[in-house]
Design goal:
The structure holds two protein chains of two kinds. By secondary structure, chain A is mainly alpha-helical. Chain A has ten helices and no strands. Chain A is about 80% helix and about 0% strand. Chain B is of the alpha/beta class. Classes of the chains: A mainly alpha, B alpha/beta. Chains A and B meet through helix 5 of A and helix 2 and helix 3 of B. The structure holds adenosine-5'-triphosphate and magnesium ion.
Chain lengths: ~240, ~260
């Protein structure tokens, strides 16, 4: 029952975000600030993780091919498939739920407990639009970050495969091109757009409606991370079933 | 003028306001006093429209808040200024940014005019050299001044202050109180102040409402409060040794 009413108030919040917009010059600078904070500020960790995950996938695949009948280009193929389908969009999003999500919950939550949100409301500002809308728009750039994650992940696989002595560069690249289905990339981008919306709004919800003081801000961040991850995992399942099943 | 008529507010089972009616006059500093937890903040948040009372009406110069269209409410909001209990400054913005914010948001003036206005109000609250500082870098008293500057920058008709001098030393507290009173008289604002500070009561209590257990227990001016025989009021007022002595002297003087 509690979950149902939370989903209800989350839906109401999302609707409220798009009402009574803040004037454009102010909104523009808020959006740019959020792009800097949410997307640009996360590129380092996204690149770092993708590179090593790609590398590990390549090594794991190589170590599991003991049968000489299996072609060596499987390493490149497996790296491409796992990075594009799951690691870049889903795994990165779980990391972002932690990094970006806790930033969003704690910054909005702090504004709630220090009455800054009340101050906005008293002035006649739609605080949900002011605080959450720029985050949603900034997160529309998230698929670009995922594209970079795909590229870097595959590159990491190539480095690990070739320099680890598991595969020749030619085999790896042949594997990358093997049976390539462009829709897999589309599928991955569709997932990233959906996850981006979840990462922007679920932590905002937990920050905006929190009660209490500084301690509760910390607790809300943790809860927000758990719920954002859960929602991402469930949506990942549903989208995969719908788009590929 | 704000007319409050029989407002009730509950949170679940807790009936915090149990039917309060009063009138706050223009150009006067109206004080709401009462012990901690008596519902002062809840009351002021009802006046601001941040909390919706279950029952009763609040009328701002004839405009009854609950009967207004959303757009009319928004316009009314822009006639209000609020100083929060914890200042509630935007900590991502400088002092100047904070005071500029409402102007930026709701007016179409050129930047230079806004800046003039910002500097004018910052001067008015005697804070002229902190424009580029962030709220975390200034003292509590200075934060209160910035909050007052931000509250009056749009020339409000109604000014609400929730314990504007809590956490300040007595001298700074009186300066802030006097500042609010001067501004109220100068611009003919209807000002409502929450307080549990007896110094404020003596300094600026032109009209005082004493809240107890969700009801208006007493109302009058700072001249009358020292003479009242209402036990709850005298208990509250004379809870400090200092004021007990003052009362003693007053009674001796009278006899
Ligand atoms: N949002 C809320 N939800 C539930 N109860 C609340 C809420 N806000 C206030 N209360 C309750 O209402 C009562 C009055 O609180 P209020 O903050 O108005 O007191 P106050 O007079 O401002 O006290 P103080 O002088 O300490 O600021 C308290 O018992 C408080 O627990
Ligand atoms: Mg209070």
């Amino acid at each position: 029952m509690n979950y149902v009413s939370s989903i209800g108030s989350y839906t109401i919040m999302v609707r409220e975000v798009f009402k009574k917009p803040t004037k454009w010059p102010i909104m523009k600078s808020l959006i740019l600030k959020e792009i800097d904070e949410l997307i640009y500020g996360s590129m380092g960790i996204i690149i770092f993780i993708s590179f090593f995950i790609g590398g590990v996938v390549a090594i794991q695949t190589a170590l599991n091919i003991s049968n000489p009948l299996i072609p060596r280009n499987l390493i490149g193929f497996a790296t491409r498939q796992s990075v594009i389908l799951e690691f870049a969009p889903t795994f990165t999003s779980i990391i972002m739920a932690g990094k970006v999500g806790s930033y969003i919950t704690s910054s909005i939550g702090t504004m709630r407990v220090t009455e800054q949100i009340d101050a906005l409301e008293v002035m006649g500002v739609n605080s949900l639009n002011y605080l959450v809308f720029p985050k949603i728009i900034a997160m529309f750039l998230y698929p670009f970050a995922i594209a970079i994650a795909m590229y870097v992940g595959i590159f990491g696989g190539w480095i690990a495969g070739v320099f680890g002595g598991f595969s020749s560069s030619a085999d790896f690249i042949e594997g990358l091109q093997l049976d390539f289905i462009p829709f897999h990339v589309t599928y991955s981008f569709i997932k990233s757009v959906v996850f981006a919306f979840v990462i922007a709004t679920v932590p905002s919800y937990h920050g905006y409606y929190m009660k209490g003081g500084a301690l509760e801000v910390g607790k809300a961040s943790t809860t927000a991370f758990v719920w954002t991850s859960v929602v991402i995992i469930i949506l990942n399942y549903i989208l995969t079933q719908l788009l590929l099943g | 003028m704000i007319e409050v008529n029989n407002i009730h507010k509950s949170f679940g089972d807790a009936h915090v306001l149990k039917g309060i009616s009063t009138i706050f006059e223009k150009g006067k500093t109206n004080l709401i006093i009462g012990s901690s937890g008596s519902g002062k903040t809840v009351f002021i948040k009802c006046l601001l429209g941040l909390l919706i009372p279950e029952q009763g009406t609040i009328s701002f110069d004839g405009r009854i808040y609950s009967e207004l269209e959303p757009s009319e409410r928004r316009n009314l909001r822009q006639e209000m200024g609020m100083v929060f209990q914890g200042s509630a400054l935007f900590d991502s913005m400088t002092v100047e940014g904070n005071v500029m914010f409402p102007l930026d948001m709701f007016t179409k003036q050129p930047k230079s005019e806004m800046l003039d206005r910002v500097n004018f109000v910052l001067n008015r609250v005697n804070l002229s050299d902190a424009n580029d500082k962030y709220p975390a870098e200034i003292s509590g008293g200075m934060q209160k001044r910035v909050a007052i500057a931000r509250a009056i920058v749009m020339n409000p008709k109604y000014l609400f202050c929730d314990e504007p001098n809590s956490g300040l030393d007595p001298k700074t507290a009186i300066i802030i109180d006097n500042l609010i009173q001067e501004i109220t008289q100068e611009y003919d604002i209807t000002t409502v102040i929450n307080s549990h500070d007896m110094n404020s009561v003596m300094e600026i209590g032109e009209k005082i409402i004493f809240l107890k257990d969700g009801l208006k227990e007493w109302e009058g001016s700072n001249k009358e409060i020292f003479k009242t025989d209402n036990a709850a009021v005298t208990n509250f007022v004379y809870s400090s040794e200092l004021f007990k002595k003052v009362r003693q002297m007053y009674i001796e003087e009278r006899n």
